[in-house]
Design goal:
Uridine Diphospho-n-acetylenolpyruvylglucosamine Reductase, domain 2, Uridine Diphospho-n-acetylenolpyruvylglucosamine Reductase, domain 3, Enolase-like, domain 1, 3 domains, five-stranded antiparallel β-sheet, four-stranded antiparallel β-sheet, 34% helix
Length: 283
């Protein structure tokens, strides 16, 4: 449980970080909160020669809300999201995910950007960002680009981040009718199944839905079939909601491990999708 020797740098600006990443090339790894990378280093599954700690770059942290749209800095701590009254009121799906993530130590040190950039198949925020239709802003020496959630999250431990690139922020519109429902591992609190629901409602019925699911496949995904089936459903009709949420893992290669079999995981995906939808509609 001892990592190989490495150098450590703590830049104060993005330009300084880009210079360090360019100088050290493939030997460099970006460090945010460290709750994903450091355990991998201890197991020697990752052996970076240089850690570039972006925690001191002030522009990468914080929550801003202009009344319509949120921007979350990549190094914003989970605890800051969990304590945000604006998120609780205007984007409760992210607020709930942050409050259900890990334990107090993890929430006080880990970062939203680090979790997303790691690409873990059980990442809570991955489902949330899909449901929020979030935009990921990525920066490098060459400039900045915006990736949709589906373009940023590509596979198991795989994102669109390339050499010399840093995730800067995530942005999304307010989503007051939203919720996150999670079936978590008792010890680690990782999602065995996690479902994020964002709804639009009119006349007592669901007019549109975005459903993001994590923990089920090798990466988070949008449950398009469920989204279509929910259109026009009255959320107070539990049987209709359950029927629309059936098959939430359809078309996905469902994972099987010591925590849950494929069959059980797929069944729980339907159950927790219905729960997330009901909770989102109640707001």
């Amino acid at each position: 449980m001892i990592p190989t020797a490495f150098e450590y740098a703590r830049p104060k600006s993005l330009d300084e970080a880009f210079s360090l990443l360019a100088k050290h090339g493939d030997a460099a790894k970006v460090l945010a909160g460290g709750h994903s990378l450091v355990p991998m280093m201890k197991l020697r599954l990752a052996e970076p020669g240089v850690l570039v700690d972006i925690g001191a770059i002030s522009e990468l942290a914080g929550i801003s809300f202009d009344g319509k749209r949120f921007t979350i800095g990549a190094t914003t701590k989970h605890a800051a999201l969990a304590a945000s009254e604006e998120l609780r009121r205007h984007a409760p799906v992210l607020w709930e995910a942050a409050n259900q993530l890990g334990d107090p130590q993890v929430r006080n040190r880990g970062t939203v950007g680090g979790a997303c950039a790691n690409g873990d198949p059980a990442c809570d925020y991955a489902a949330v960002m899909f449901a929020l239709d979030a935009t990921f802003t990525v920066a490098s020496k060459a400039g900045r680009r915006d990736d949709a959630a589906g373009a940023f999250q590509r596979g198991m431990f795989e994102t669109s981040l390339g050499p010399g690139e840093v995730l800067v922020s995530m942005s999304f519109d307010a989503a007051p009718h939203s919720a996150y429902a999670k079936y978590h591992h008792a010890a680690s609190h990782f999602a065995i199944v996690g479902v994020a629901a964002v709804l639009e409602l009119a006349g007592g019925a669901i007019t549109s839905a975005r459903i993001g699911i994590t923990g089920v496949g090798d990466h988070a995904y949008r449950a398009g079939g469920v989204e279509k089936a929910l259109a026009g459903v009255r959320p107070d009709d539990a049987a209709a909601v359950a029927a629309a949420c059936a098959g939430s893992a359809s078309g996905v290669e469902v994972r099987s491990d010591s925590q849950a079999s494929k069959t059980y995981r797929a069944a729980m995906a339907d159950v927790f999708t219905a729960r997330a939808v009901a909770q989102a509609a109640s707001r």
